[in-house]
């Protein structure tokens, strides 16, 4: 019989993705001994199968699209992308799916890394194989999410792509069917269509990017269609089979579609099914509800940070939460009270309530922060939507000939602040932080009039939006 090894730490973190790493960084900076447990690659989903590889695939696609909109440069970028070179660069950004550099970073902050499946075995106790880790102050669940797959008979035998296969594939399939209309679906449809695949996008709902303003999905769908993709809304999948390498999809209306690969991008599920939640009275496979210090409801020692708490499934929001959780754990360990009433408190996460920023790296890009017009109305705010065609902005015309885009700000008419902002168009991802500052800071509309945008930049859209609000 193998003897069990027990180790005592102040904090034990389950998951070594960007979120878990940030928790460990903060607790170590506070002088707390910290163990990090990882069952796969240190660096997590973002580094190897999500943020980094997807943006490495998309950057050449977007750069070529922008170049094609400029006379004098358009002719220089005619022809297909060098798919092999794009994939090689993507591989470099993932470290060829090795995590040596990330492991070195964990060591550099003075945290201990344990490889293997970490499972709770009771309050403040985690097992990793034959080792038992006991936490004096906190156990932090930062295990993230996995792709959710629909309950279609025989789907496992089809070997469908999820976001992992879509971002790590070493060749472009000739025909790719993408099921879904959200961020992963639209970004991967954009990337693989440009890299040589014939893409068919099947969307059950009425349009794409349904969590943004409706015009965002409309403009992205229009651009995908112009690029050669077949975008079909109101289309469900009834069955999927694979025979001799060919995937056969039958839609809800009985239509038959053949493909070389099929990607399901229909949602995410929490990676909490095999971490021992049942030993502490929680439901395995569930999302974990937390307060604003990221502490799990009903447990004064258990924290859930990042995707697993379902507050905002975005890496930057998870890292933000990790900084808050690390500070809260350190404060409680030192016996320092948390002042939750203070909006500037380092111990309180508020940015993921009504002011979450996001960029969708399609062509055109879609970027938003805060509430959409429909969400603001549903929340009971008296609001007005102010829209501007971004082609009216001089900087947009200089950025790209025939620039096509749209901007909206959602104005709270009682408080005269912004509840939300959305931009769609080439290059708008770099605009969203200015909108985030305005929304989070609750900057009065009248003050924004004196935040003068530089000329001639796309940021001048702010002036057009404010003029539209003033004049109508």
Descriptive overview:
The protein has 472 residues and is α/β, with parallel strands linked by helices. The protein has three domains: 170 residues, FAD/NAD(P)-binding domain (3-Layer(bba) Sandwich), CATH 3.50.50.60; 112 residues, FAD/NAD(P)-binding domain (3-Layer(bba) Sandwich), CATH 3.50.50; 108 residues, 2-Layer Sandwich (Enolase-like, domain 1), CATH 3.30.390.30. The protein has 16 helices and 21 strands. Strands 1, 2, 3, 4, 5, 6 and 16 form a seven-stranded mixed β-sheet that branches. The chain has a five-stranded antiparallel β-sheet with strand order 17-18-21-20-19, sandwiched between helices. α3 runs antiparallel to α4, α3 packs across α8 and α8 runs parallel beside α9. The longest helix has 19 residues. The protein is globular, with a radius of gyration of 24 Å. It starts with a strand and ends with a helix. The mean pLDDT is 96. Keywords: FAD, Flavoprotein, NAD, Nucleotide-binding. Its cofactor is FAD. Belongs to the class-I pyridine nucleotide-disulfide oxidoreductase family. This is Oxidoreductase. One of its GO terms (molecular function) is dihydrolipoyl dehydrogenase (NADH) activity.
């Amino acid at each position: 019989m193998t003897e069990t090894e027990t180790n005592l730490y102040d904090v034990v973190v389950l998951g070594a993705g960007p979120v878990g790493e940030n928790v460990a960084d903060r607790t170590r900076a506070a002088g707390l001994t910290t163990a990090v447990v990882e069952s796969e690659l240190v660096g997590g989903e973002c580094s190897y199968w999500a943020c980094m590889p997807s943006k490495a695939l998309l950057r050449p696609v977007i750069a070529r699209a922008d170049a094609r909109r400029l006379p004098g440069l358009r002719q220089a970028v005619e022809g297909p992308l060098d798919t092999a070179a794009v994939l090689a660069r993507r591989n470099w950004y993932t470290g060829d799916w090795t995590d040596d550099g990330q492991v070195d970073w964990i060591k550099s902050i003075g945290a201990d890394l344990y490889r293997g499946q970490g499972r709770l075995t009771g309050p403040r106790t985690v097992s990793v194989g034959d080792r038992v880790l006991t936490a004096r102050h906190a156990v932090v669940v930062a295990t993230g999410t996995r792709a959710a797959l629909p309950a279609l008979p025989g789907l496992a035998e089809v070997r469908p792509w999820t976001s992992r296969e879509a971002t790590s594939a070493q060749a472009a399939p000739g025909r790719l069917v993408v099921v879904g209309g959200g961020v992963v679906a639209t970004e991967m449809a954009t990337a693989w269509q440009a890299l040589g695949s014939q893409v068919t996008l099947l969307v059950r709902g009425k349009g794409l990017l349904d969590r943004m303003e409706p015009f965002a999905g409309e403009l992205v769908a229009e651009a995908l269609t112009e690029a050669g993709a077949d975008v079909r809304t109101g289309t469900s999948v009834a069955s999927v089979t694979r025979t001799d390498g060919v995937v056969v999809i039958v839609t809800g209306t009985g239509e038959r579609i053949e493909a070389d690969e099929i990607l399901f991008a229909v949602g995410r599920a929490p990676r909490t099914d095999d971490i021992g939640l049942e030993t502490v009275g929680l439901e395995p496979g569930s999302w974990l509800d937390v307060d604003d210090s990221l502490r799990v409801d009903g447990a004064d020692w258990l924290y859930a940070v990042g995707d697993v708490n379902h507050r905002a499934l975005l890496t930057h929001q998870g890292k933000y939460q990790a900084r808050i959780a690390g500070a809260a754990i350190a404060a409680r360990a030192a016996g320092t009270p948390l002042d939750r009433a203070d909006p500037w408190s380092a111990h309180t996460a508020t940015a993921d309530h009504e002011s979450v920023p996001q960029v969708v790296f399609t062509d055109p890009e879609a970027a938003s922060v805060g509430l959409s017009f429909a969400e603001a109305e549903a929340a009971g705010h008296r609001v007005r939507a102010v829209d501007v065609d971004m082609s009216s902005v001089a900087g947009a015309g200089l950025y790209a000939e025939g620039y096509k885009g749209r901007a909206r700000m959602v104005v709270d008419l009682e408080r005269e602040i912004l509840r939300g902002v959305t931009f769609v168009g080439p290059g708008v991802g770099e605009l969203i932080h200015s909108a985030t500052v305005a929304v989070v800071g609750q900057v009065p509309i009248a003050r924004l009039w004196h935040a003068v945008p530089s000329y001639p930049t796309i940021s001048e859209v702010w002036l057009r939006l404010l003029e539209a609000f003033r004049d109508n």
